[in-house]
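Worked example 3 (structure in, sequence out).
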């Protein structure tokens, strides 16, 4: 996935990009668990990998935001940004939990 540059985006567009990528990742994570339940283990792994790509894109955007702010350009706080941050962080937690669950299922042949 190509890295998006946030330099020409508004704060709202940046927030929506975070929501977009973390939302896509969240969907893949849930689909992964469902695929595993249906016995489609390879598909489950592929969906986790796809989720990680979207989370990587979100992380890149987030990192650019931090770099921008550390360079003296303040980020405007908004409810939308807070929602985007919450969405990203909860999706990261969900990914780690589901990966651990899938590993457990595999080791126990569930």
């Amino acid at each position: 996935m190509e890295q998006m540059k946030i330099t020409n985006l508004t704060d709202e567009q940046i927030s929506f990009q975070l929501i977009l990528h973390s939302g896509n990742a969240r969907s893949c994570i849930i689909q992964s668990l469902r695929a595993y339940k249906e016995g489609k283990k390879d598909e489950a792994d592929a969906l986790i990998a796809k989720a990680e790509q979207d989370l990587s894109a979100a992380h890149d955007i987030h990192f650019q935001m931090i770099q921008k702010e550390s360079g003296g350009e303040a980020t405007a706080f908004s409810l939308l940004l807070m929602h985007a941050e919450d969405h990203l962080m909860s999706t990261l937690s969900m990914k780690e939990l589901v990966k651990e669950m899938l590993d457990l299922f595999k080791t126990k042949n569930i």
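Notes: The chain has one domain: 12-100. Residues 12-100 form a domain with the Methane Monooxygenase Hydroxylase; Chain G, domain 1 fold (CATH 1.20.58.80).
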